[in-house]
């Protein structure tokens, strides 16, 4: 669950990736990362020098989806506004694709009959600093991802590459 390289992280399953730079702003056991999109994320302090470019991996199962504007308690809580692009009911799980300022993110939640969100709904996605795996990297983001209609499993695709946000190719 704590891969040491980006290759291993992508090899062992689905992941959401953020790319940014370790900021000088530190608070206790937390550090700040400023992404290429300007979004600030809180991560567990990785002990990496300020100004270092990093990749951050967050598993879809670690991301929660809540109504827009929902506040998450705690100093290590990350919260990003977004719009639901798709929601697929997989029986025991709900698979969400959410378009945020940092790109298209995937969240997987247990299907417990609670609140569900559909296409176009404004939401707030959240994850804890402890759920972020920080990797030092050469700052070469992988190609954008296409998602299949059956289950939103990422498939590498150079065909649907765009300048800032990945597109979704339904198969």
Integer-rounded radius of gyration: 16 Å
Globally, the shape reads globular
Order of helices and strands: HEEEEEEEEEEEE
Strand percent estimate: over 45%
Give helix % range.
under 10%
Q: Report strand order across the widest sheet.
A: 3-2-1-4-10
How many DSSP-defined strands? 12
Main beta sheet strand tally, sense and closure: 5 strands, antiparallel
Describe the structure.
This protein is globular. With 171 residues, it is mainly beta. Strand 7 and strand 8 form a beta hairpin. The strands form three sheets. The chain has a five-stranded antiparallel β-sheet with strand order 3-2-1-4-10, with no helix packed on it. A five-stranded antiparallel β-sheet has the order 5-9-6-7-8, with no helix packed on it. The protein is built from one helix and twelve strands. The two termini are 30 Å apart.
Write a brief caption for the model.
The protein is mainly β and 171 residues long.
Provide the fold topology:
Blueprint: H1 6-11, E1 16-27, E2 30-35, E3 40-44, E4 53-58, E5 64-67, E6 77-89, E7 93-100, E8 103-110, E9 122-128, E10 133-136, E11 145-147, E12 154-156
């Amino acid at each position: 669950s704590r891969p040491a390289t980006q290759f291993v992280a992508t090899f062992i399953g689905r992941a959401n990736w953020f790319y940014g730079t370790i900021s000088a702003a530190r608070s206790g056991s937390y550090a700040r990362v400023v992404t290429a999109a300007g979004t600030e994320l809180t991560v567990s302090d990785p002990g990496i020098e300020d100004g270092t470019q990093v990749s951050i991996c967050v598993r879809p199962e670690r991301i929660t989806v809540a109504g827009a504007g929902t506040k998450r308690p705690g100093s290590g809580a990350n919260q990003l506004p977004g719009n639901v692009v798709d929601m697929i009911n997989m029986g025991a799980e709900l698979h969400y694709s959410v378009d945020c300022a940092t790109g298209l993110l995937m969240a997987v939640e247990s299907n417990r009959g609670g609140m569900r969100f559909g296409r176009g709904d404004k939401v707030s996605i959240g994850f804890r600093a402890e759920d972020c795996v920080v990797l030092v990297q050469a700052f070469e983001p992988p190609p954008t991802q296409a998602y299949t209609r059956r289950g939103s499993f990422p498939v590498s695709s150079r065909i649907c590459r765009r300048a800032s946000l990945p597109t979704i190719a339904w198969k």
